[in-house]
Design brief:
The chain contains 13 helices and 14 strands. The protein is an alpha/beta fold. The strands form four sheets. A five-stranded parallel β-sheet has the order 5-4-3-10-11, sandwiched between helices. Strands 6-7-8-9 form a four-stranded antiparallel β-sheet. Strands 13-12-14 form a three-stranded mixed β-sheet, with helices on one face. Strand 3, helix 1 and strand 4 form a beta-alpha-beta unit. The longest helix has 19 residues. The chain is globular.
Length: 409
């Protein structure tokens, strides 16, 4: 599966700072110190509806991670999946009387268009669950052979007790996990499971649903968590730098994925840091496909909203914060974009290099994009008050905003 075209990232003078970021597993900040190649895995969409602002906010956060690393003169190895076979996709296709593969292809194509418009840096490896199935099956077979998995009425389940580190990603107690499991695709009430929290690795073929050859597992399709594990292990290996996604993925998805990988390899940890973005609400409730309270990026673009303004509306909120989308949020971003573009139309002046360092400092401190925006705001205000008459290095500010914040002025 192909990703989307990459926008150029301008090179800035000097060198950026190492990233200090909040790790869900430890509950506090950690300094991520990759080698020459930084490795990141971000969980992708289930393509049964268009990209909404909540999606965009999550991918914006991890786009910033990449930009901070690139500014330290590292290479970045970025992997993202597409869950192009799952119950919600099949349910939406059945509801609309549409072929599920056509639905997945159409919505994935629209996601690519939205990511391109928002100048999100693409992954080097963009992998669909369906294309990953040949690599998933051997992993499930290995877990069965080692005793870390078991069969229940033809379905294969992972035993969470096979991983001594289970629970360390989310830090939740068993009751909280059980409640979230029931809400987020698990089946804790199914009779016969060794532990109510055990997640499915391989679903035996169901009548009327797509299935694939699972070798010794029989025909069926993969569970949600093992999909990402197979892709991450194949392209990044164990101990990669950042596992990313929305905060609703900490449990069960990232918790289970870590345990799958650790049980498979006998190594720990799956990822060095687990980083989660907050949720975006609309009309007082989290944006959700199931609730239908969504603001779509593509709808805003069709209405003539500049994608740079959409991106600035995301950057105005700290990535870990839960926040609410309103017309005012967008109006403020549109006004900010206009001020910045007016400011960079004047000569930069000597303060431009100082601004580069301010933005670097803000982003290295747990991706504090609001602080970075405030620094540019102050510079723009000075430009307006002085008329931008100082001689300087034209373009430093616009290159900084482009390279570190992904906003084209």
């Amino acid at each position: 599966m192909h990703a989307w075209p990459a926008s150029d990232v301008p090179a800035l003078p000097g060198k950026g700072r190492d990233l200090r970021i909040h790790d869900t597993a430890t509950g506090g900040p950690v300094t991520v110190d990759p080698g020459p190649v930084a490795r990141i895995y971000v969980c992708g969409i289930t393509p049964y509806d268009a990209t909404h602002i909540g999606h965009a906010a999550t991918y914006n956060a991890f786009d910033l991670v990449q930009r901070v690393w690139l500014d330290t003169k590292r290479q970045v190895q970025y992997v993202q999946n597409v869950t192009d076979i799952d119950d919600p996709l099949l349910e939406r296709a059945a509801r609309d009387g549409e072929d599920w593969t056509g639905l997945a292809e159409r919505e994935t194509a629209l996601f690519r268009e939205d990511m391109t418009a928002l100048r999100m840096l693409p992954p080097q490896h963009y992998i669909g669950a369906v294309e990953a199935i040949p690599g998933i099956v051997p992993l499930v077979e290995r877990l069965c052979e080692s005793g870390a998995a078991y069969v229940l009425d033809g379905d294969v389940y992972f035993s969470v007790e096979a991983d001594p580190h289970f629970g360390e990603v989310s830090g939740l107690d068993a009751e909280a996990m059980r409640l979230l499991s029931a809400e987020r695709g698990g089946d804790p009430e199914r009779p016969g499971k060794k532990n109510p929290l055990d997640p499915m690795l391989w679903m035996a073929a169901r009548e009327g649903e797509p299935d694939w050859d699972g070798g010794s597992l029989g025909r069926g399709r993969p569970g949600w968590h093992i999909e990402c594990v197979a892709i991450a292990l194949d392209h990044l290996g164990m101990g990669f730098d950042v596992q990313g996604g929305g905060s609703d993925l900490a449990f069960p998805h990232h918790e289970m994925g870590a345990s799958h990988a650790q049980a498979l390899t006998g190594e720990y940890p799956f990822a060095k840091a687990y980083v989660h973005a907050g949720m975006v609400a609309l009309d007082g409730a989290k944006m959700s496909k199931s609730k239908g309270n969504l603001v779509f990026v593509s709808t805003l673009r069709r209405a003539g909203v500049d994608p740079a303004a959409i991106r600035l509306s995301l950057l105005a909120h700290h990535y870990r914060a839960d926040w609410e989308w309103t017309d005012q949020v967008l109006d403020e971003a549109v006004a900010r974009l206009a001020r910045w573009r007016a400011a960079v139309s004047r000569p930069d002046g000597p303060a431009a290099q100082d601004l580069v360092e301010e933005v670097r400092e803000a982003l290295s401190n747990d991706l504090d994009a609001p602080a970075a925006l405030a620094a540019v705001d102050r510079w723009a205000a000075r430009q307006e008050s002085t008329g931008g008459t100082d001689e300087g290095a034209p373009g430093v500010v616009s290159r900084t905003v482009d390279a570190l914040l992904g906003v084209a002025l």
